[in-house]
Write a structure and sequence with these properties.
Length: 210
């Protein structure tokens, strides 16, 4: 059962979203919006719940392999589950972040604090929004962590191995090859379970890490 967010945020827009989703059958859905997903509190439960919520109100097109990764600089914390999904939406980037993604985080119990590395039930961040470059208070696209965090760059590369990062004109292949080794254990069974949730039923066709 959805909580306060579901009653007051999601369901308020059901008619709008249903009308929009019905129109997707009449046009080719554009690609190129990628969301980085992470969790280290009941990760398999919360990642699946997040994708189900997203899938009700957005077009979830594809998802990368999800990986178990060690928390950076916090060895005492539980391991993370990280991956990237490709979506389509009519929302502008700021509305996507603050109306949809942050609301879903709140529904799943995410409480943001000054500690940016605190454990979290879910983390949903815009990694890339087509060819958009945004540098505004509270919104930076592409996500600067792509060039520093293999658990974002590698799944993104899996989905789009030919991508040039907007604004930098730097290829994902170059970024991934330059990143230091980081323990990333593929969660193949979990990934396949996620792909059975909805439209994102086929694995990506991109190559493995270069």
């Amino acid at each position: 059962m959805l909580g306060d967010f579901g009653e007051r945020k999601l369901d308020d827009n059901v008619g709008c979203w249903k009308n929009w989703r019905s129109r997707q059958a009449d046009r080719k859905v554009m690609s190129g919006i990628y969301i980085a997903v992470g969790s280290n509190i009941d990760p398999e439960v919360n990642v699946e719940r997040a994708l189900r919520l997203l899938g009700r109100f957005l077009v979830v097109k594809r998802l990368s392999t999800f990986f178990r990764t060690a928390p950076l600089d916090r060895p005492e914390q539980p391991a993370f589950c990280n991956g990237v999904i490709e979506i389509d939406t009519l929302l502008a980037p700021r509305d996507l972040k603050y109306t949809a993604l942050r609301a879903i985080e709140a529904e799943l119990g995410r409480v943001r604090s000054q500690d940016k590395h605190a454990p979290r039930p879910i983390d949903l961040d815009i990694a890339v929004f087509r060819n958009r470059v945004v540098d505004e208070p509270g919104l930076t696209i592409p996500d600067p962590d792509i060039v520093r965090r293999p658990f974002i760059a590698v799944p993104l590369y899996e989905l789009d191995p030919k991508m040039l990062l907007p604004g930098l004109e730097l290829s994902l292949a170059t970024i991934v090859a330059a990143l230091k080794a980081h323990t990333m254990e593929p969660l193949e069974a979990f990934t396949e379970r996620l792909r059975r949730i909805g439209p994102a039923s086929s694995p990506p066709t991109g190559p493995a890490r270069p």
